[in-house]
Amino acid sequence: MGQDLEKVLLSQEQIEERLTELAAQIDADYAGKELLLVGVLRGAVMVMADLSRRLHLPVQMDWMAVSSYGSGTKSSGVVRILKDLDTDLHGRDVLIVEDIIDSGLTLSWLLANLRSRGPASVEIATLLRKPEAAKVAVDVRYVGFDIPPEFVVGYGLDYAERYRHLPFVGTLAPHVYGG
Ligand SMILES: O=P(O)(O)OC[C@H]1O[C@H](OP(=O)(O)OP(=O)(O)O)[C@H](O)[C@@H]1O
Ligand code: HPA
């Protein structure tokens, strides 16, 4: 496992500190409201757990599963809903919780999809964003870290379903994905 990693990009401490800041901002922005957190499976599980536990607002949580990456390192651009929400979004303040915005294709599709369901508002919170990899612009209210356009793993992010459990974000050694 150690040999698979090239470097640690963001330590557990850096991530937790930033999530605390984002939670305070979200608490202030939605004061007096009840928020519906929509986690995007599977990558957002860690961010959802750690961000939601820092919120003081009343929140509900629901989950969607979408897929655009399959087992590779590039977005296919074709988004499929693998599991839809159980919650009616009509009149709700919705915050999509994500691990990463890379090309932006998944989130721009998801944002349009959720906005078509009649919510009061839909915003996005993502731990990571790769500005140099953007293929479409996505309006993101809460960003943990802007990172370089390298493939990263850990803290929910996988390569071929591995490395999601790592408590930090790192890059993989090129030999792992045949680079
Ligand atoms: O901006 P994009 O280029 O569209 O990439 C971002 C998407 O890719 C990842 O999901 P993935 O499809 O890998 O599924 P997973 O969450 O199950 O790992 C991530 O969780 C985002 O949903
Ligand atoms: O850099 C990444 N790593 C893992 N999954 C991803 N999905 C989009 N970008 C990435």
From TrEMBL:
Pathway: Purine metabolism; IMP biosynthesis via salvage pathway; IMP from hypoxanthine: step 1/1; Purine metabolism; GMP biosynthesis via salvage pathway; GMP from guanine: step 1/1. One of its GO terms (molecular function) is magnesium ion binding. The keyword GTP-binding does not apply. Belongs to the purine/pyrimidine phosphoribosyltransferase family. Its cofactor is Mg(2+). One of its GO terms (biological process) is guanine salvage. Keywords: Cytoplasm, Glycosyltransferase, Magnesium, Metal-binding, Nucleotide-binding, Purine salvage, Transferase. Its main location: cytoplasm. This is Hypoxanthine phosphoribosyltransferase. Its EC number is 2.4.2.8. The keyword Cell inner membrane does not apply. It comes from the Bacteria. The gene is hpt.
